[in-house]
Design brief:
It holds the Pfam family MFS_1. Keywords: Membrane, Transmembrane, Transmembrane helix, Transport. It is a multi-pass membrane protein. This is Major facilitator superfamily (MFS) profile domain-containing protein. The protein is mainly α and about 475 residues long. It has a single domain, classed as MFS general substrate transporter like domains (Growth Hormone, Chain: A). It has 21 helices and no strands. Helix 3 runs antiparallel to helix 12, helix 10 packs antiparallel against helix 17 and helix 14 packs across helix 20.
Length: about 475
Amino acid sequence: MATTKDLKHSTSDLKEKDDIEKTESVSSDHEDVNYDPAFVKRTLRRVDLRMLPLLGLLYAVALIDRTNLGIARIAGMELDLRLDIGERYSIASMIYFIPYTLLQIPGNLVLRRLGARNFMTICVVGWGASQLGMAFVPTWGYLSLCRVFLGVFEAGFFPSLVFIITTWYQRYEVQQRLAIFYLSSIIITSFSSIFAYGLTFLRGRGGLAGWAWIFLIEGLITIVLGILAYLYVPDFPDKSKFLTEEERKMILGRVQQDRGDSLPDKATGRKVWLHLRDPIVWAHSIMFMATGVPAYAVGFFITIILAGMGYSTSEALLLTAPPGLVAGISCYCFARLADRTRKRAVWLATQNVITIVGLAIAAYAKPHPVRYFGLFLTNMGATGCVPGVLAYSANNITSHSKRAVQTGLIIGMGGVAGIIATTAFRQKDFPRYVTGMWVAMGLQFTMLFLLAVLSYVYARRNRLRREGKVGPLEGQENFFYTI
């Protein structure tokens, strides 16, 4: 906890002391308590059903709204807004990620002040309005402006979502939950191109082009879901209302036993700066950036790559679905392996290798079906690494303040991945985008190196702690790093 000199007012001092007392109370009330397995299982199922489907749906909508530019492009927007001139498409795609990257950590820091429901509703309704506005843009400049607002409102959503999910579960339960919500979003987004293709048949209605109807309908759907988020999204465990008091205490007690941070600590400027100076926080963030580049490349360019293979517009849109479905299945299987074996790095490295192979095939194979198979492998590897890195990082930290900073920085670096993907895949490299493929492959090798370094560091720290040569890791007596 922060010392008194870190706080400006006596009321803050009292609140921080109260936080300490509440944390100690949870620890003493639940330490070494064995909960009824049936009660735990039933309660966790309630939490899962309340949280994961809706959050997965909201994240699916976020992915669709940020990447449907590629679908709209081949549906006629390229000619109407002249996105084929220079790097206009890359600029319109990339500019979204500037506010998206810069506003990650500030969003997480205000999340608890506003509450999960209020904060997420503002985010979802805001980006839905931005998406809807794209239906009426007359030039690519206005399109880019709408993309800026889309980035502003989406910035706080994903890190907040991950932050909230990781506060409800123990460390070796979290990757499967992240994979389930991510899996549901991948399955939904896999069919988004088919849905968008159907919307293009509304062209001419209301004087709008077919691509404009994509933004109009999907924007309206997002706004409606934002209202549902206010009604149903659960808050943090200590603020939850849908559980009984007994269930809530059990959830907090299990988290306290597992990593000792069931209740929030005070997020001071000194703490934020301290967490930002931790090189391991940056290592996890760079890993997320590395896996984000091929993931975004597939999201933004798969329909364009397929069209470059000679497939028609309708065929390119329809063929985007199968790689996403296979990637969803692979993502969940690797998540189950990771949670059951309580290992993270080895499974992440395996998926890095799959991604590298897929990118090489997509870049250099001659037959189009083989290149298409490469897109399957790329999507499988990159998709599985997204929840994998989030779980890996979440497993190896304690305290809400550090979780807020690390989650915000990680997702912020995911925004940097979007900038890299949308600029490395250049129009002049169409249709194979070899330069972009090599940038993505180089980042996979970077991630493999960081996984090796972190595995060594974590194993050494665990050994020294077991030998009694260092004090408690992450400030928790029985805490050990997950390798």
